[in-house]
Write a structure and sequence with these properties.
Layout: H1 2-14, H2 19-28, E1 30-34, H3 67-80, E2 84-90, H4 113-121, E3 126-129, H5 149-173, E4 177-181, E5 186-187, H6 195-209, E6 218-223, E7 234-235, H7 239-249, E8 252-256, H8 266-276, E9 280-284, H9 300-311, E10 318-322, H10 331-350, H11 354-362, H12 366-376, H13 381-391, H14 399-410
Parallel strand pairs: 1-2, 1-10, 2-3, 4-6, 6-8, 8-9, 9-10
Antiparallel strand pairs: 5-7
Helix pairs in contact: 1-13, 2-10, 3-10, 5-6, 8-9, 9-10
The structure holds L-rhamnitol and zinc ion.
Amino acid sequence: MATNYEAAKARYAAIGVDTDKAIETLKKVIVSMHCWQGDDVTGFDQDGPLTGGIQTTGNYPGKARTPEELMADMDEVFKLTPGAHKINLHASYAIFEDGQWVDRDQIKPEHFKKWVEFAKERNMGIDFNPTFFSHDKVKDNLTLSSPDEEIRKFWIEHGKRCIEISQYFAEETGIPCVMNIWIPDGYKDVPADRLGPRARFADSLDQILAIPYDKTKVFVTLESKVFGIGMESYTVGSSEFTVNYAAAHGIISLMDNGHYHPTEVVSDKIPSMLLFNKHIALHITRPVRWDSDHVVRFDDETKEIANEIVRNDALDRVFIATDYFDASINRVSAWVIGLRNVEKALLNALLTPHEDLKKLQDTCQFTRLLSMQEELKTFPFGDVWDAYCEACGVPVGLDWIKEAEEYEKNVTSKRV
Ligand code: RNT
Ligand code: ZN
């Protein structure tokens, strides 16, 4: 493999790309790994179904049923995936000792102590998400925008508790916590009032963000959405709502690439957002005809998202997180495939001679630009990718598949 890498390195060097440097840079880029791929977004705080207009489909055996199982599966993913990670938790993954259950408006740092231990042992930070779904207080698909003041108050309290927990994560791990707010709220059919729910959502956010917290430790992000299942006609937290709210209140916009109209792409939004914001946040997923949260592939849009981050020198300004959930295939492998593909897209971007390509654009050499862009696709990317995996101490090439299959045979298939 060393010789393959040497040959690849020379080919990239000939176009001014330093492969060693790309590998060193990528090693330090943090990708926040969503915990919810492991258990189909179930969590541990209640037994009801997944609600909120999101859906996991499939019933592949071996899903994690307990915190211990989920943590073991996450460790397996870390073993098979190169790069630096954070873990991304939802509030519904609180771990209650026997008889200690409290509702979401009363959760406390102590309910996440085991996650802090897990993260610290692995030198990782923790990102967090209040869970505004899968709960009996999601009334008529509404939470922070509900006209029912009691419902709205419950969820405002939940948001406040989550900021406190986020700060606890940051203080314990020494790594800032990104706390993302996403609400499912919306209507199945044409609403009679589009402004009222959004005004209530804005007021709820104002109240949540009014609690004192350390803004150097907790970065609050707000995620938009275009529709959800059962909320096809209107979502309260639309793109315009979230981008404007975030800009006006000094929090951060989060773009999930499953949350736009099918021909709209997040890659094109990234540079505009970077021009006007110090930070932006991403959920990387794969929509197939709808917000289906398929496992991320090494596809054109994922590559283009990575290109926009890298060529605009924004690796330290973009909070990168994954967000997909496939229950139709081995869940650990699903996790690994998507995360490895995010890493591949970033490496691919780091191996692209962006400055030269920009120059071709600015001098209107479009024929040469297209020729270059297409030829770069057959450069020996795979050899650099293998060297990166080796440098990170994770399986190279197809080797991870065997390991994942062993884990399935010995661990997840025994869960019945
Ligand atoms: C839903 C949003 C949201 C969730 C997670 C579980 O459409 O993408 O980010 O997927 O919070
Ligand atoms: Zn998302």
